[in-house]
Amino acid sequence: MSANFEAKKVVVEEIKSKIQNSKSVVFVKFNGLSVAEDTELRREFRKNNVEYKVLKNTLVRRAFNDLGITDFDEDLNGPTSVAFGSDETGASKVIVEAAKKYDSKVVVKCAFVDGGKVDANGVKTLASMPSKEELIAKMLGSLQAPISKFVGVLSAMPRSLVIALNAIAEKKA
């Protein structure tokens, strides 16, 4: 076997590993980004803990096929970059914002989230959703609110009693 073939096998294995370790994989069509725009986009990806790569379509297709997923065979054509997200919404948010900012230079193709294919509209919906951490924080806040109100009511009762007793004591004195 040739050295080139072996090198491609190694790259396919790396891509498979990234797919398996990512919560989301978003495919983007890019065309005509300047170096400054690309650098800014990559900075946003890093800030949001998303790995962004330009990979050969055939190698990405092979990696998905090796994992038993053939849903992306038609989407992997033309200039394609791949964003591997550590959560379900992070990569989608960055890409949808970039698509708005750079107009037709960045176009959302589709994504692989939670074991299934998500079309471009689904990616836009994912981008509008709060992250898992934000949802957990909101839920904990909702759970904490009744408890803190109950504690406030309980502490108000003895305070009212003390105020009433103090008023009676001042009247007698």
Written account of the structure:
With 173 residues, this protein is α+β, with helices and mostly antiparallel strands. Helices cover 60% and strands 17% of the residues. The chain has helices spanning 3-21, 35-47, 57-66, 90-101, 120-128, 132-172, and strands at residues 24-30, 50-54, 80-85, 106-113, 116-119. A five-stranded antiparallel sheet has the order 2-3-1-4-5. The model has no long low-confidence stretch (mean pLDDT 83).
Name the strands of the widest sheet in spatial order: 2-3-1-4-5
* Mean pLDDT metric: 83
Based on secondary structure, the structural category is alpha+beta
- Report Rg: 27 Å
Largest sheet: 5 strands, antiparallel
Residues in helix, %: 55-70%
Question: What's a concise summary of this model?
Answer:
With 173 residues, the chain is an alpha+beta fold.
